[in-house]
Amino acid sequence: MNNPEQFLRDHRQLTRRYFLYLGVAGVTALDFLPLTANAKPPAPALAKAIKELEPWFTPPEKFRDVSRGKPLPHSLPDEKKRQVGLTRETWKLEVVSDPDNPAKIGHPLTKKVGTALDFDGLMKLAEKHVVRFAKTMTCLNIGCPLGTGIWEGVPLREVVCLTQPRENLRRIFYHGYHNDDPQQMFRSSLPVDRVLEDPFDLPPVILCYKLNGQWLDSERGGPVRVVVPEAYGFKSIKWVTHVVLSNLFHANDTYAEGNNDVDGWLKTFAATISVPREVKAGQPIPVTGYAQVGLAGLSKVQVWIQSNAVERPAGDPYFATAPWVDAEILPPPKHWGALPGGKIPAGTMGFDDATGKPRTWPMKLTKVHWAALLPGLPVGEYTLRCRTIDEKGNAQPMPRPFQKSGNAAIESVEITVKS
After folding, report:
1. Which of 66, 209, 260, 384 has the fewest C-beta atoms lying within 10 Å of its C-beta?
2. pTM for this predicted structure
3. CA gap 99, 117 in Å, rounded
């Protein structure tokens, strides 16, 4: 390679032409809706990579698990689960005032006086207040989503209102079963405003009992868990058993003890799924990936391949001056999978009941897949990177580049081109 910079300039123009050829619209045969009319089908290598993409909704057995507990509550014997209220038949939820920072309520829900909410009571509320929405569950400090599903439940506010709150209610915190060991308690909290109202057209915070149309199993936090639509997983407490109404004015999440931002919402970022690590010189390189669509939305996914023989300018830690090229954001799938009948349940927020299609795309708080076909390269060592641009024009990892506020690091993948 006599002039690496000239090569990369030429490569960038060639890449743009490949993307124009790509179209990706022809993936209709691969269970995706077309992007544009009369577009050419993708090249065979890219078509194969797209066909092998993961389902948009995650099958239950494919969800990743980052549960806490010794032993993990979902691993308990069935008889023990029945004893401690981790079955639908024995589950009860207590909703009480915080003894240290009391909120004034008229009707606490407690086991002692027989007013705790049971599963039948939750289902009675669901007859009128059921909510369904799609969400990608992800951990604050992990760069890979745990899974995407349709979460169904009753807004938490409906249960809070049963306690007849009157005043001095500023924060709501909640925890789940923790092996009857105070040292294992894992607690999260929300300002009361977020529980009682849904800003930015967000779905409500729910007491969730179904995932993808099926009863929530124990490993996913069943029989009932909290799900906070815009938040990372630590806010969506599993095996919920207690809700405490408090006059406390600040967050009191267990996760704060690890120097974590406990009030941040989902970030937008991209990562790869399929990248060939070794290719022959001149051979096109098919690349696929996903993008987590945070509250800031998603306008673009971009890729950039760099020769390792070329030094990047100093003072550009996020590669803002690199020659990024737009990848293709794939359209919604025709067949959703992992759902009863493969169809979106009626009444799911963000979807049109008549067509089963999303009202907007990409959908915030979920994911999309993307694809790119890079033209062949000369022999050498290269680094592929990908990033997102959100709806406000912020390039990943901005505007929040801090790890403890949610993973958004720019991924790099090494590729070797051989003769």
Report:
1. 66
2. 0.90
3. 20
